[in-house]
Amino acid sequence: MDLPGMALLAAAGLGAGTVNAIAGGGSLITFPALIAVGLAPVPANVTNSVAVSPGYVGSVVGSRADLPRERVRALVPVAVLGGLAGCVLLLATPQRAFEVVVPFLVLGAAAVLAFQDRLRRLVGHPRHMAPRRHAVALYALTAVGGVYGGYFGAALGVMLVAGLALLLDEPLARINALKNVLSAVIGLATVVAYAAFGPVDWVGVAVIAPATLLGGYAGSRLARRLPGGVLKAVIVTAGTVVGLVLLWRAY
Fold first, then answer.
1. Sequence-separated contacts (24+) of 126-129 with Cβ below 8 Å
2. Burial level of 65, CB count in 10 A (0-12/13-18/19+)?
3. pLDDT value at position 57?
4. What's the CA angle centered on 218, arms 104 and 187, to 5 degrees?
5. What whole-number distance in Å separates Cα of residue 60 and Cα of residue 159?
6. d(Cα 125, Cα 168) in Å, to the nearest integer?
7. Predicted pLDDT at 212
8. Which pLDDT score, from 0 to 100, does residue 98 have?
9. Which residues of the chain are modeled with pLDDT < 50?
10. Residue 20: closest CA among 215, 186, 230
């Protein structure tokens, strides 16, 4: 890999870490950059999953003051198992079928967050949900997010924030902090699985990973300072753009 290629990957990693911490969709920056420096699609996807995971650690550090720790202890094991299941799916099945569905999942997540208040009137406010129903919904959401993150991962943050905001009666800053932790542990699961069994380009990882760590910390600090309404608008906009780009690529 030449110096211009390494510079491209470093810049992409910094941008992806920042975007992932604030909203999600950073993989749409790093994945094309890996393709541009000569990787085939599957190695690029696997390398991207490993390379962006340190950025989530930076996001967790930057948003730790808002972290709902009781939620973390309950949901982290589910996220890890879901992430590992998603890795198995990617390595064992054709990727095309899932790529066709992904854009609609991302666009749907953006719509859920945009119309959160109206949807709550239909499905019920979190504080009015039965404890068992609430727990099952929260675990199911985390498991599905883990599978998606292990398999593909683009706009995972948007999907997690949308679902968590619908199910938790918490300020968006705390939900975003929980999203950062879940994304981090899903990323760790992908690192372990792909490092052992996937076609990882370790030079690409060595260039991108430190940049995502720095970008993740900076982005999480910025997200803490944004008013809830502005943060929601940013996440909805990012999710819509990511979904439309994925839709264009798939079709």
1. 126/166, 126/167, 126/168, 126/169, 127/169, 129/167
2. exposed
3. 82
4. 50
5. 18
6. 9
7. 92
8. 65
9. none
10. 215
